[in-house]
Every structure is written in structure tokens, then in C-alpha cells.
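The protein record filed below.
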Amino acid sequence: MHKSYLSLFLRNTGLLRDIDKFRYNFIRLKNSIANRRFKSQHPELKIPPDYYLYETYRLNYEQYINDGLETTKALIDMLIPYIDVHDVEKVLDWGCGPGRITRLQKLWA
């Protein structure tokens, strides 16, 4: 059976939401020990609500932070030839995610 047909069937029967809820809770439980350890090692970091990280980072706090650091450093490297990134007072985050780049504004300072 094709994925689109299965998805349509689950949506039409009202089961898709329940399956997604189960999957969310399963992934949350699966990562709970690693995430708790990461938060205890980095108490200064503020992590968005779990559901915001569910689809994009599979509720993996360390992956979320590290990806944000890598992307922020890459953006800084791209901007350095054009502006003094250390003199920037405001940054527009044009994305639509959980703020993985703008939350790292300390790298801009």
C-alpha cells in the first residue's frame, strides 16, 4: 500500500492524530534519559517545548543545539566579508522553526 493511501485512510478514519500522539510520546520516552543528561550538563540553555523539536530534531536536545551552533557559525562566516558581525544590534530570524539560530546571539557579540 502506498504511503499516501495509508495516510489518507488514517486521516479519514480519524486515526492519524492518535498515531501521531503515540509516536510523539514514544520518541519523547526514547530520548528522555539523554535529554535529561544534556539539560543537567547545560543548565544555562533554554530548550523550546518538546513538541517544537518533535518533527525536526526527533526530540534530541543535543542535536538541536549543535545544529544551531553549526548554522550560526556558517552564517557568521558568510556575513563577515560584508558587515561587522560584532557590531550588529539586531538580527532578523527569517525561519519558521524553534529559533535555533537567534537563540545563539551570544556568538554574535
Notes: The CA atoms of residues 67 and 81 lie 23 Å apart. The helical segments are 3-13, 16-41, 50-57, 61-79.
